[in-house]
Design goal:
heterodimer, A: about 550 residues, Cytochrome C Oxidase, Chain A, 16 helices, globular, B: 1 helix, cytochrome-c oxidase activity (chain A), Cyt_c_Oxase_su1_BS (chain A), Ba3-like_Oxidase_I (chain A), metal-binding (chain A), membrane (chain A)
């Protein structure tokens, strides 16, 4: 029987680190592109003639939204499973390497096409914008590679279950499984649109594409994509941060329940990204909005659980009063402080999400830069700062080094710099969005229109925030390189939380995948079947491809 | 027989270590923040559409 590892096996560690190297290279490239965008939109800076705003915007979105996240998450989940369910077998590890290389080859293909200005179609690659076929093939390989990585995780989980019949799997392995399954179900949508619609169309095999079907398939994938980013952060919040602060996990069952709810409710909700889309019956939009609001439940369960973990710990250390426990938290430990900033950012991020998902309120903010501000709080703060917080202990753990006091201090500074930069940038984006400033648009005064003039001070504030954030990226890269190659040798702890003694026993129903996948599929069929029949029955002739780059 | 303990008042306050009142207050504050944001944009909607 496999037992829990104190140290992740070096061979598994190398596989994880390979994923992280690509992720942090992506951070450097995508971060630079982000800085350039904010500078262009301030109106004070122009790009050289050989590149353009939309090319830079595509680099930023693809490299950070798709590459950084997928590589980091797959690496992190491999580390979690290797740590909590035992070292990967040679076959599982080999599968992981095949997944890694497939994703890497795909990334390079897509990146080359973007750099050659053959694919400035932004990270959502909406039709009828048409990219070079190699861009779509590259993205397909990234997805297929992630499935192969996922297969390695599922194999490792299956061998743990076989060796431990009748026992609930380790919490972090369970969470990685939920995220992997959700990812596989969700990516079927994007794979379908790319393979059956966009690829034949870009190769010239078919002349026209059904835009509505392709966008619907994209958002069938696009919303769970958001949860694919978020759930690894939740894994750290639920099951790792309690150990870092010296406390206990409030409840194992609550954590599992909330993950299962995310599996069920994060997929049949894509229409809330298409609320202004013609061609979808409002009744079905309403249904998917209701399902979207059900995702609020596990989010609030998470908030409750985290507050409770912190309060229980603080009180066990003698904290008194209503909020005395806050003072007892380890404010000098970057492994806690940096993800904590991420948790705080999730409060305004969640509030903004409720606005986005409400049909009427969506009309106030749709396609404005408010939306960009929103996902720079969710993904680029809550998720990314948690990933940075994870890196501060996981990278040295895997490379046999330690996070020194000096680096810990720098890491806290990094988190604070990020928070300041994002307050400026995302705050200004939210405000400008409420005033109607569009997203995905280069600098323009719109013929000197009075309304567009109102946006300019906010765009300057975005550039100030973007510059501060870029400083944060440089700090992060410096710390990453230090932890990977130069920090003193030693043993850095891999913190895995223990469940509170007061928590109830975990029921086995959570491991009943047939049940959960069955309900997931039913909900998807319920939410999407009739709308898809409508779209196909009433389809227009479709659109030819456009290349504006 | 002397009963020195009876009638003697002590001011020691015992805090319940398992109390989650801070959590309750926190989730309420969070809930209010969500509602205020939503209602704020809702009035913007009413104003504009």
């Amino acid at each position: 029987m496999k037992s829990v590892n104190t140290i992740v096996d070096r061979r598994d560690g190398k596989l994880v680190m390979a994923h992280f190297y690509v992720a942090f290279i992506a951070l450097a490239i995508g971060g630079l592109a982000g800085l350039l965008q904010t500078l262009v939109r301030s109106g004070k800076f122009e790009l050289p003639s050989w590149t353009g705003y939309y090319q830079i915007l595509t680099i930023h979105g693809v490299v950070l939204g798709l590459v950084l996240t997928t590589f980091f998450i797959m690496g992190f989940q491999l580390a979690l499973v290797s740590k909590t369910s035992g070292t990967l077998t040679a076959k599982q590890r080999k599968t992981g390497w095949i997944g890694f290389w497939t994703m890497t080859v795909g990334t390079v293909m897509a990146a080359v096409m973007i750099l050659m200005n053959e694919a400035s179609v932004l990270y959502t690659f909406y039709a009828p914008l048409q990219a070079h076929a190699l861009f779509y093939i590259g993205l397909t390989l990234v997805v297929v590679g992630s499935w192969i990585d996922g297969a390695a995780l599922i194999m490792a989980y299956a061998s743990w279950r076989k060796a431990n019949p009748g026992k609930p799997s380790p919490l972090l392995t369970f969470m990685a499984m939920v995220n992997t399954l959700m990812w596989i179900v969700a990516t079927i949508g994007v794979a379908a649109t790319v393979l059956f619609q966009l690829l034949p169309w870009s190769l010239g095999l078919v002349e026209r594409v059904d835009v509505l079907v392709s966008r619907t398939l994209f958002w069938y994938f696009g919303h769970p994509l958001v949860y694919f980013w978020l759930l690894p952060a939740y894994m750290a919040w639920y099951a790792i941060v309690p150990k870092i602060i010296g406390g206990k996990i409030f409840s194992d069952s609550l954590a599992r329940m909330s993950f299962i709810l995310f599996l069920l409710f994060s997929i049949p909700v894509g229409f809330h990204h298409q609320l202004t889309e013609p061609g979808i019956d409002p009744a079905w939009k309403f249904l998917q909005v209701v399902l979207t609001f059900l995702v609020v439940i596990p989010s609030l369960m998470t908030a409750f659980s985290l507050f409770a973990t912190f309060e229980m710990y603080g009180r066990s250390k003698g904290a008194t009063g209503l909020f005395g426990w806050l003072k007892k938290l380890p404010w000098g430990d970057a492994r806690f402080v940096v993800p904590f900033i991420g948790m705080l950012a999730f409060i305004p991020a969640g509030a903004g999400g409720l606005v986005n998902a409400s049909h009427q309120l969506n009309q106030v903010v749709h396609n404005t830069i408010w939306v960009t501000g929103h996902f720079h709080l969710t993904l680029a703060t809550s998720v990314v700062l948690t990933f940075f917080g994870i890196s501060y202990w996981l990278v040295p753990h895997l490379t046999g080094r330690v996070l020194t006091k000096a680096m810990n201090k720098l890491a806290i500074i990094q988190g604070v710099v990020w928070a300041i930069g994002m307050t400026f940038m995302s705050g200004a984006m939210h405000a400008a969005g409420l005033l109607g400033a569009p997203r995905r648009s280069s600098f323009s005064t719109y013929g000197g229109s009075e309304q567009a003039m109102e946006w300019i001070p906010y765009q300057v504030a975005q550039a100030v925030g973007g510059s501060i954030l870029f400083l944060g990226i440089i700090l992060m890269l410096y710390i990453f390189i230090n932890l990977a190659f130069f920090a003193p040798k030693g043993e850095e702890e891999f913190p895995v939380g223990e469940v509170s003694d007061a928590a109830e026993k975990t029921p086995m129903v959570f491991e009943n995948w047939k049940l959960w996948i069955g309900i997931t599929v039913l909900l998807i069929l319920f939410a999407y079947t009739i709308p898809f029949i409508d779209m196909i029955e009433n389809a227009p002739i479709g659109s030819k491809g456009y290349k504006f780059f | 027989m002397a009963q020195p303990e009876i009638g003697k008042k002590t001011n020691t306050k015992v805090e319940d270590q398992s109390s989650l009142k801070g959590t309750l207050a926190s989730v309420f504050l969070l809930g209010f923040f969500l509602i205020i944001t939503w209602v704020g944009v809702y009035f913007l909607f009413l104003d504009r559409f």
